[in-house]
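Quick one:
INPUT:
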């Protein structure tokens, strides 16, 4: 629901996320290979799982980039009105105990 308090030009930093994902995949591949070569199958498996997660994340990011921007109401679209049946709260200024 649009409230009017969100930024008018908010966008996800998909390209930054993509490069961080590429960096993660590269290190996960490196870690999997190195730990497999030195005989640490547990660490190699952990890096392999990280490799899988980073690859799935990269695929999702690429899908979002290819989808392009979605419709987002501009600043000329007014925010939704709150329901009329809701009682309104009155704001009272804070009362200080000192003179």
């Amino acid at each position: 629901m649009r409230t009017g308090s969100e930024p008018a030009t908010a966008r996800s930093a998909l390209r930054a996320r993509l490069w961080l994902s590429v960096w993660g995949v590269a290190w996960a591949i490196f870690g999997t290979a190195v730990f497999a070569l030195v005989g640490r199958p547990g660490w190699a498996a952990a890096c392999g799982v990280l490799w899988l997660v980073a690859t799935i994340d990269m695929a999702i990011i690429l899908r979002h980039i290819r989808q392009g921007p979605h419709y987002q109401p501009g600043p000329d679209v007014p925010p939704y009105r709150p329901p009329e049946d809701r009682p309104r709260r009155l704001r009272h200024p804070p009362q200080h105990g000192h003179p």
